[in-house]
Amino acid sequence: MPAATPTAATEQLTMFYRDMTSLDRVVASLQRNGVDVSHLQARDLYERDLDCQNLGAFRMLEVIAAAVVERGAPEPLDHVLDVGCGMGGPSRFLVDRFGCAVTGIDLLDLRVQTAQELTRRAGLSTRISYRVADVTDLPFEDACFAQAWMLDVGIHVRDKAGMFGEIARVLRPGGLMVMHDQMGPLAKAMAPVTRLAPFVAPSLPQLIRHVERAGLRVLSWQDTTQHVVTYFDQVKARYGPLEPGLDEDARPWRKWIRITTDAYLATLDELGGRTGVVIAQRTS
Question: Which domain covers residue 180, as residue numbers?
């Protein structure tokens, strides 16, 4: 099968993430939980997993942050790049947790607009900015970021050399790349998900080679598979089966969640799939 062109890949990702990127759904959930949306705080969003669509959601952010602290947490004067920012949950978490400034990028304009609006409502627009950009062609000067976080995004990028090369270029010497992703090869059980968007998952040894060829030295790998399995078990229990009386507008979204959850659980809990955190350092 020929590789998708950048335009085709963007279209696939737009379709994949469109229903996951609903400002109205986020606001409705907050209101159901009694949150005053006129005085929104970032933690009202990410602690409820409303804006964290990385594998494992908010609890995984806590795991990743703890791993980063062992190597050197971002400091208040540091500037961090959030690659594939999505709805902005991880970037707002970073600002809350470490006090740093963050620039988030995403290939999809819809995601960037939603991240900007949620950040505005949370009162963090002076600390976080967002823009549409491609990780294989970053619009930033050399050595301008202390860290680059990329959570479950690299799996969608075919050009691994270009991706890691650009991340290494914009990191300052000694800066950290913090990456979470699913390792390949992907089991056939992932087919309901992988046919909807580009998925290019190297094995862990292949990933390390890609990273180190770009001028980054891998410092650590931490397996997070059980955290992700636990998360999807909770999602499955929370949403349950599709009830006959379920609102028709909600049915496609709930069906998509169930299909995705079953695919990940089969792959990670039954077939030996793995997820993990890679922390690497720019060497020069």
Answer: 6-282
6 burial class (0-12, 13-18, 19+ CB within 10 angstroms)?
middle
Q: C-alpha distances in angstroms, 121 versus 39, 168, 214?
A: 8, 33, 38
Helices marked H in the chain — which ranges?
A: 6-18, 23-32, 42-46, 57-71, 89-98, 109-121, 160-170, 191-194, 204-213, 225-239, 251-265
Both structure tokens of 20: 């996951």
d(CA 282, CA 188) in angstroms, rounded, equals 35
**Residue 241 three-state SS:** coil
Per-residue DSSP letter, 134? B
Backbone angles phi, psi at 242, to 5 degrees: -80, 110
Q: How many domains does the chain have?
A: 1
Whole-prediction pTM: 0.91
pLDDT digits (tens, 9 = 90+) for 226-252: 999 999 999 988 876 655 554 445 556
